[in-house]
UniProtKB/TrEMBL annotation:
<dbReference type="InterPro" id="IPR046348">
    <property type="entry name" value="SIS_dom_sf"/>
</dbReference>
<dbReference type="InterPro" id="IPR001347">
    <property type="entry name" value="SIS_dom"/>
</dbReference>
<protein>
    <submittedName>
        <fullName>N-acetylmuramic acid 6-phosphate etherase</fullName>
        <ecNumber>4.2.1.126</ecNumber>
    </submittedName>
</protein>
<dbReference type="InterPro" id="IPR040190">
    <property type="entry name" value="MURQ/GCKR"/>
</dbReference>
<keyword id="KW-0119">Carbohydrate metabolism</keyword>
<keyword id="KW-0456">Lyase</keyword>
<dbReference type="InterPro" id="IPR005488">
    <property type="entry name" value="Etherase_MurQ"/>
</dbReference>
<dbReference type="Pfam" id="PF20741">
    <property type="entry name" value="GKRP-like_C"/>
</dbReference>
<feature type="domain" description="SIS">
    <location>
        <begin position="52"/>
        <end position="215"/>
    </location>
</feature>
<dbReference type="GO" id="GO:0016829">
    <property type="term" value="F:lyase activity"/>
</dbReference>
<dbReference type="Pfam" id="PF01380">
    <property type="entry name" value="SIS"/>
</dbReference>
Length: 305
């Protein structure tokens, strides 16, 4: 059985007496090992993303749950999917042991508050279309387990990300993602190796899910929220790349469509702003399918004339 996150590794005995270069090299080695631990989990991540996309496509919500450093990483992913993919803010929630007060100095006892986890999850009135993404290096956190239990009772999808094998969270989950990052350089400091792997997998899981929900086109964020000058320039650049339009035309189309990239791309392809949204809806929000439909229609017209 692989060594767990709480194992005191002989490899790092005397760590505090090492040179700065030796310590940093050990940290680097640990971080590289953490990323390497993700590859065996890729099939599990893919399966989780498929299930998650199905629930969200049916109108469900995504709920991130965790405690301590793992909870903060989960909360970070939750905060980013709205601006990046325009995922509705009212369909993403964070259940963080001890609450979402980010004053420095995490309280360690709150992860044992399973009663809080249960009551906070029950307050969301979860349904079978919802999904929980639960994260804990140990795989045993009582608060997070309680959230998963409530979700399971409601028929919601449960996804667990943990760094120790054969633990309660992974055993209870519909979709279990094991990241065997092994002992930490500083024993038990799972914000390091375990946290690095968790951060990467959270990003991979949510990004793959959003791709399957048609919120990415050719590796570009075609649903991003245009909230500042930098993002406006990015949006215009995306439109220029997709359609071959000039910067001026792309900016005009973007403005005509309320700063929404996908309808603007259809406007640049010849549609009226009023019908662009309807066409996207007909194709499940897929810009690729909508543009191909436009090309097919134009071809048919040419062949018929």
């Amino acid at each position: 059985m692989a060594a767990g996150t709480e194992t005191l590794a002989a490899r790092y005995r005397g760590l505090d007496s090492w040179s700065d270069a030796e310590i940093l090299d050990a940290f680097w080695e640990g971080q590289a090992r953490a990323i390497g631990a993700i590859r065996p989990a890729l099939p599990a991540i893919a399966a989780a993303a498929e299930s998650l996309a199905q629930r969200l496509n049916a109108g469900g919500r995504i709920v991130y749950a965790g405690a301590g450093a793992s909870g903060l990483l989960a909360a970070g992913d939750a905060m980013e999917i709205g601006p990046t993919f325009n995922w509705p803010d009212d369909r993403v929630f964070v259940l963080l042991a001890g609450g979402t007060d980010l004053t420095p100095g995490l309280k360690g006892d709150v992860e044992d508050h399973d009663h809080r986890g249960r009551s906070e999850a029950e307050a969301l009135k979860l349904t079978a279309n919802d999904a929980i993404v639960a994260v804990a290096a140990s795989g045993t956190t009582r608060y997070t387990l309680a959230v998963m239990e409530v979700a399971a009772e409601a028929g919601a999808l449960t996804i667990a990300i943990a760094n120790n094998a054969d633990t309660p969270m992974l055993q209870a989950a519909d979709r279990a993602i094991l990241l065997e990052t092994g002992p930490e350089v500083i024993s038990g400091s799972t914000r390091m190796n375990a946290g690095t792997a968790q951060k990467a997998v959270l990003n991979m899981l949510s990004s793959l899910t959003m791709i399957r929900l048609n919120r990415v086109h050719d590796g570009m964020m075609v649903d991003l929220r245009v909230q500042n000058a930098k993002l406006r320039e990015r949006a215009i650049g995306i439109l220029m790349h997709i359609t071959g339009a000039s910067k001026e035309a792309a900016a005009k189309a973007l403005a005509a469509c309320g700063d929404r990239i996908k309808p603007a791309a259809l406007v640049l392809a010849g549609h009226a702003p009023a019908e662009a949204g309807r066409i996207l809806d007909q194709h499940g929000g897929s810009l690729r399918a909508a543009l191909l439909s436009r090309e097919s229609t134009n071809l048919q017209r040419k062949q018929g004339s």
